[in-house]
Amino acid sequence: DTEVTQTPKHLVMGMTNKKSLKCEQHMGHRAMYWYKQKAKKPPELMFVYSYEKLSINESVPSRFSPECPNSSLLNLHLHALQPEDSALYLCASSQNAGTGMGNTIYFGEGSWLTVV
Amino acid sequence: GNSVTQMEGPVTLSEEAFLTINCTYTATGYPSLFWYVQYPGEGLQLLLKATKADDKGSNKGFEATYRKETTSFHLEKGSVQVSDSAVYFCALSDRRTGNQFYFGTGTSLTVIP
After folding, report:
1. d(CA B15, CA A24)
2. What pLDDT digit, counting tens, does each position of B37-92 carry?
3. In chain A, which residue's Cα lies nearest the Cα of B90?
4. Which residues of B touch A2 (CB under 8 A)?
């Protein structure tokens, strides 16, 4: 069973709406991630938080705004999205974000987003 | 740079058949290697991993051996079940940049009774 919990599981929003995706992990991990996955494709990295600070932004449009209130929580705020943003959004975490031995990433079940 | 190449799918097998999904990688350093599985409508689950050459990862009857000489990490299972139907992703993480995961394109497996 995954210990990364995402809510909501499904979200339908209009292009003028503001909504948020939420993620929580209970493993004491210090790195958290947002990925976007389109159908039949591998996950694409969007953001990485390391020790609650944004460390990687993969040139994601500003209509996606991440927030890390504490080491266990990660949010993704959504505003003025486009239909092509419809996808599965996956939250993930790993023990740390340092260099050295490669980390194992643990994924949540994902939030299915549909923009209408 | 770092990259992962997986065999193209989809793969369709009969129950109890032998499974191999090929994965090769390119890495500048000494990567850790992973297989993730994604069942329909779900997120990715870690299936197995190996962190150094000649390590064998195993879980749920699946195995993969980290082969540095052939830069490969092929996934195998001796007897597949219908419940193994899913998409399988090979991935690597670069030891020098622990944040960066590189995924293969995924291989869809369907097991028929």
Report:
1. 37
2. 999 989 999 999 999 999 999 999 999 999 999 999 999 999 999 999 999 999 99
3. A42
4. 43, 45
